[in-house]
């Protein structure tokens, strides 16, 4: 409940910079979690470089900074490329080159996917000419609903009807029936949310788009969950962190969102 209240305050009460800082912190934690505890990058200098690049990518999304996003991304890719191989040359006897590859994944891919939430939030189009609110503040809830709502539906569907294991080695508790329930539940939840937004805000989002976001989002969320579970299993860790008591780390809570939010961003840009 406290987390939900914090999200509402960041979206609708506090200045946008508060949410931007919060998402930047999530990016920083996510980069550390996928590289540090897993030991996929165990060279401390390389890990520090990855954290700085991740933070730079997030800060580059701040609206108070009039910078070109393409320039930020290109600059950070160059910095990470040169810096990583400079570190590799210095520590070539103890640092495997695979750490460079994982560094690019953790420092650029993971935060960029997370930052889809911020890019959606910053969408400020006004489909009905109403300037009283920023549309992005509301539609950013849809990928979260598609990911977490579908996950909740999958949990209950699996408890009630689950008989066939979906991925017994990677995630023994997941079932095919639960996954189907997640897809159906996700589609229904997002559809209901869109119908409400269309009625109250004139959002004019097509019904087909709501069903696609809900259904496909549920599938993508399941893939994201399983993908990061594979990393945990292969690196021998139980949770990515403990920042959320009882829920683990940032990636334990946002693994599905990392796959759903970019899809939602693409869909929104196609529609509007």
Describe the structure.
With 272 residues, the protein is mainly α. The chain contains eleven helices and two strands. The protein is 71% helix and 3% strand. Strands 1-2 form a two-stranded antiparallel sheet. Helix 2 packs antiparallel against helix 3 (44-59) and helix 10 packs antiparallel against helix 11.
Low-confidence stretches: none
Shape assignment: globular
Largest beta-sheet characterization: 2 strands, antiparallel
- Kindly state the number of beta strands: 2
Helix content: over 70%
- Range of strand content: under 5%
User: What letter string, H or E per element, gives the SSE order?
Assistant: HHHHHHHHEEHHH
Report the end-to-end length measured between terminal Cα atoms.
Answer: 33 Å
Spatial strand order of the main sheet = 1-2
Helix/strand/pairing category: mainly alpha
Mean pLDDT, to the nearest integer, reads: 92
Task: Provide key terms for this protein.
272 residues, mainly alpha, two-stranded antiparallel ribbon, 71% helix
Task: Present the secondary structure layout.
Elements: H1 2-12, H2 16-35, H3 44-59, H4 69-90, H5 98-114, H6 116-121, H7 136-139, H8 141-161, E1 165-167, E2 171-175, H9 176-201, H10 207-235, H11 250-271
Antiparallel strand pairs: 1-2
Helix pairs in contact: 2-3, 2-5, 3-4, 3-5, 4-5, 8-9, 8-10, 8-11, 9-10, 10-11
Outline:
The chain has helices spanning 2-12, 16-35, 44-59, 69-90, 98-114, 116-121, 136-139, 141-161, 176-201, 207-235, 250-271; strands at residues 165-167, 171-175. The chain is an all-alpha fold and 272 residues long. The protein is globular, with a radius of gyration of 19 Å.
């Amino acid at each position: 409940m406290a987390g939900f209240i914090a999200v509402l305050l960041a979206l609708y009460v506090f200045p946008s910079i508060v949410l931007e800082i919060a998402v930047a912190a999530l990016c920083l934690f996510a980069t550390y979690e996928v590289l540090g505890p897993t030991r996929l990058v165990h060279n401390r200098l390389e890990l520090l470089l990855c954290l700085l690049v991740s933070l730079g990518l997030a800060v580059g999304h701040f609206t108070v900074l009039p910078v070109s996003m393409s320039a930020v991304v290109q600059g950070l890719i160059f910095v990470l490329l040169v810096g990583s191989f400079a570190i590799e040359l210095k520590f070539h006897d103890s640092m495997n080159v695979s750490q460079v590859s994982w560094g690019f994944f953790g420092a650029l891919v993971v935060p960029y996917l997370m930052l889809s939430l911020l890019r959606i939030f910053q969408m400020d189009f006004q489909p009905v000419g109403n300037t009283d609110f920023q549309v992005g503040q509301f539609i950013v809830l849809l990928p979260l609903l598609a990911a977490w709502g579908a996950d909740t539906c999958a949990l209950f569907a699996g408890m009630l009807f689950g008989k066939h294991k979906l991925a017994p080695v990677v995630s023994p508790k997941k079932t095919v029936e639960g996954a189907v329930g997640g897809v159906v539940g996700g589609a229904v939840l997002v559809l209901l949310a869109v119908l409400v937004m269309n009625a109250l805000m004139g959002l004019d989002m097509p019904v087909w788009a709501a069903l696609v976001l809900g259904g496909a989002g549920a599938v993508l969320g399941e893939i994201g969950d399983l993908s990061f579970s594979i990393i945990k299993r292969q690196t021998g860790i139980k949770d990515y962190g403990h920042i959320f008591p009882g829920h683990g780390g940032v990636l334990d809570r946002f693994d599905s969102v990392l796959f759903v939010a970019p899809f939602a961003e693409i869909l929104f840009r196609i529609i509007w």
